[in-house]
Amino acid sequence: MNLLEVKNLDIEYVTEEGTLKAIDNVSFSLKEGESIGLVGESGCGKTTLAKSIMRLLPDNGSISAGEIIFKGEDIVKKSKEEIRKLRLNEIAMISQSAMNALNPVYTVGDQIIEGIRAHSNATKAEAYKRAEEVFKIIGLEGKRLKSYPHQMSGGMKQRAIIAMALTLNPSLIIADEPTTALDVVVQDKILFQIVDIQKKMNSSMVFITHDISVVSEICETIIVMYGGKVMEKVSTKVFFKTPYHPYSLGLQNAFPSIKDIGEELISIPGAPPNLMEKQFGCRFQQRCPFRTELCQNEIPELIEVGEEHLIACHYPERVEEFREKAKKNETWQTVRNRLIEEMKGGE
Ligand SMILES: Nc1ncnc2c1ncn2[C@@H]1O[C@H](COP(=O)(O)OP(=O)(O)OP(=O)(O)O)[C@@H](O)[C@H]1O
Hints:
There is one protein chain. 37% of the residues lie in helices and 23% in strands. The relative contact order is 0.12. The chain has 347 residues and is an alpha/beta fold. The structure holds adenosine-5'-triphosphate. Adenosine-5'-triphosphate binds next to β1, β2 and α1.
């Protein structure tokens, strides 16, 4: 059963320079217990999408169209009070900025215990025990429960936030780059702890990251976003064996842990589109080595190319050719040359 269904979602930010469409006609669903990795370069709309599910968009951001159906009800239509309850009881967000949500005047333990008791009939002693357990899982000593936020390092606070989110048995965990603030040594450990707890609780998860190698390790499904749109959605297993979208092929070239040892890393030339400007055709066309006139003029719809495998590209039938060519640096060099020519032409 689907826990979450995002349907034809549009999100806009109003700025002094004009209106920016950060999310453009995005649809996807998340099954109970499923974990989805949301990937894409900086600015493609990952955080905006995550915040909209929590209804935590900043004041200048708004959902201008679409639905976010959670457990059969549209989050977009819910009142502030209903949303508050949802955030308390059903959806937990783990993000870097969540660290600032710790109240400086209470000990971390008191805040976690209060959270647990607000959601269960646990006595104070039981809640304390549960908090200690989760602290242990997340690699913090039990005595840290008595610390105030200012007595903890950034990494410790981040782990406390993760612990806090996980004590509440949420049906949905939204993790936005949850370990970025931590040092590399503990990152892996904590990622696997988050996944372990998510599986044990049978929670669903939306995991946001720049790093597709992380998704390969911890998520069942991957959604590749680009310029506010979904480019590809498929199981991670299929994605790493037989990706379809030229942007996905480019991303896979660029990540060291996914490529075979010794294989050359190739970055995707150019930069994502400026969403303040009106977009024509496929969002990726400017950087795509395979673009045609059609790509420059017509937006490709998301189409099914295999079981639960969706892509937004006009040329699914050319995938074998794309895969072969995308492995070669010279293919991407043509994009580099084209972009240089375009820049010269614009001068
Ligand atoms: N408060 C805001 N006001 C105006 N524009 C915004 C605001 N927040 C985000 N944007 C713009 O919306 C687009 C999507 O941003 P978002 O932060 O969701 O992307 P992201 O993929 O999460 O990026 P990152 O990986 O860097 O966090 C970007 O073009 C960004 O500049």
